[in-house]
Amino acid sequence: MVVAMHAGFFTDLDERLAYLALNGLFRIAVPVFLLINGYFFYQVFVSGERGKWLVRVLILYVVWMAFYAPFWLPGSQYSLLSWVFRVGRTMFFGYYHLWYLIGMLGAGVLMIFVGNAKTKVLVIAASGAFLGGVAIQYMASYHLLATGRLADTFTFTWSHRNFLLFAFPFFCGGFLINKHKLLEKLSVGNLRVAVCAGLALLLIESSLNFVASPSHAALDNMLSLAIVSPALFMLIMKTVIPVRSKEISLYSTGIYLVHILVLYALQATGHMSPTLLTLLTAFIATGIAHCLIRLHRRFTFIL
């Protein structure tokens, strides 16, 4: 889904279909990843291995930011002060898809400080942060603010898709699902109903945005994601799937990290339809991920 969003899947076939996929259905991917991270972070939190987790994620982030440095490092045309500012800003918010790693890291740091708070407090904090991100994105997408510095700031993706307003709410959600053993308390039937309802709401929200938003704006922070993503995550967790989950995890991480490089390489070869570009990128990135997994056995910091 992430590869498809970055490659423009379906945009050469049908505009509405592409929008409902790329700015609707496929938007569940990142929140689900964050829920997974938060769910397993709970064991890290209670076991006292928080520092080890932070170092591991930080190293992963630094390694891949260095790998993509040729694409984001500013040129020599900037003054030293401007160059340092631009580098610092990119490192803080993350280059392109790597915003996820720094967002997850920030959410983890925040959970370390607030993880022992009462569940009611965490729910209120996560809900407030999530709704704040949704509000900022919708205000920016629909130009609800008068022109000015605040309105201009809200147009930047990092103003709503960051560790506090996007990563933390879902990360905290996964944390609380594990803490309160919700997988044991909710039935598969109820979760299926919640997933179906969430998907319906997501497609309705996406359809309304397609019709009403200027230039069919792409939205990361969508209200219905708060329903469909946790329900889908828990439903999958309660489903017995005969696969090696660790290997699947490494493949997904590898594909996520390298697909932008593959995308750039394929785009440089000349014109290619977005749908074909998506399929080729996914296929090649999977092959590279396989190689990375083999390297990971010796160099654990790359995945």
Question: What can you see in these coordinates?
Answer:
By secondary structure, this protein is an all-alpha fold. Helix content is 73%, strand content 0%. The protein is built from 15 helices and no strands. Helix 12 runs antiparallel to helix 13. The chain is globular and about 55 Å long. The two termini are 20 Å apart.
Give the arrangement of secondary structure elements:
Elements: H1 2-7, H2 15-22, H3 29-47, H4 50-67, H5 69-72, H6 80-93, H7 99-114, H8 119-141, H9 149-154, H10 163-179, H11 182-185, H12 188-212, H13 225-237, H14 245-268, H15 274-296
* Rg calculated over all Cα atoms: 20 Å
SSE series: HHHHHHHHHHHHHHH
Helix fraction bin: over 70%
What profile does the largest beta sheet have?
A: none
**Total DSSP helices:** 15
Share of β-strand residues: under 5%
